[in-house]
Structures are given as structure tokens and as C-alpha cells.
Amino acid sequence: MLKKIQTLYLSIAAVLLGAMPFFSICHAYDAASGADIRIRFYEHPVFLLFIVIAFVLTVIALFSFRKRILQIRMCATAAFILAALQIWIIIAFFVQLGGSYLISAATIIPIPCIILLLLSVKKSGRDEVQYAKDLLAGKYKESSADKH
Predict the structure, then answer these.
(1) Phi/psi at 49 (nearest 5 deg)?
(2) Could you tell me which residues are beta bridge partners of residue 27?
(3) What is the pTM of this model?
(4) Using an 8 Å Cβ cutoff, are 17 and 55 in contact?
């Protein structure tokens, strides 16, 4: 499991996604009260739902290392969900919150996660193609259960 580079990619993406709900989306300084107002990801149920779904898909892909096609599909789906989340975050920030809030650096966490997931898809795809080539070349012997 830990021999493949895609496992490292998926692990880093899972850690980032697992920590993401606790970061703030944006913050503002209220001059009247002197308080620093922070809006966190877990305060928005839709953002939290997208993060949890992407996290679960990433963890499932991480532990399905023997089923590469499933791993590729899970990673691609999680990357698509994170891309939608990133677009939604940008729209929500610029349209709804507006000028008095400052965007946090944590709002770009989906971008490195998308990159890591797509790199994992690329490496898993290469492994699957190499396995198919080796299978056709006869490097793997058929087991007695496969013969009829």
C-alpha cells in the first residue's frame, strides 16, 4: 500500500481535506466592537457536505489500492466535487460577503487537493496500463482456479 506514489498523494489530500472544515473561509475586523469575525467552513452546511463527501471518497480511494479502476473513479469524482466547491466558495465570497471581508488562505486548499487527486489518477492509470501490458506479455501465471 505504501509502495506507490499515489498513496502519498491520496494521504496528503485526505489530511488536507480532514483539516479543512476547521479553517476559516474569511475574516473581518469589526471596528465598532473591536472583534475579529471569522467565518469557518463548518458553519456552512453545504460547504461541509462537499468537504465530507470529497474526504470520504479520498479515503475510500486510499484503501482501494488493489482495485485501480475504482480508485481512479473515486479520485476523479472527488476532484470534480472539489472543483465545484472551489467555484462555489469564490462565488459565495464575491457575491454574498463582499468588500468588508478578507478571504483566507485556506480557501485555496481544494486546489492542491485537486492537483494531488489528478496526479493520483495519472499514476494509477499508468499502473493499470502496465499491469495490462504485463498480463498480455504473460508475466503473470494463471491460477488453477481460473482454468476451467
Answers:
(1) -60, -45
(2) 38, 102
(3) 0.82
(4) yes
Cα distance between residue 65 and residue 128, in whole Å = 11
Domains of the chain, each with CATH number or no CATH: 5-136 (1.20.140)
Q: How far apart are CA 78 and CA 10, in angstroms?
A: 11
Contact (Cβ atoms closer than 8 angstroms) between residue 37 and residue 97: no
Mark 75-103 as b/e (b = at least 16 C-beta within 10 Å).
bbbbbebbbebbeebeebbeeeeeeebeb
pLDDT tens-place string over residues 108-143: 899 999 999 999 999 988 888 888 888 888 877 655
* Residue 57: alpha-carbon gap to chain centroid: 8
Per-residue pLDDT reduced to its tens digit, 55-71: 999 999 999 878 888 99
CB proximity list for 116: less than 8 A, separation 6 or greater: 9, 10, 12, 13, 16
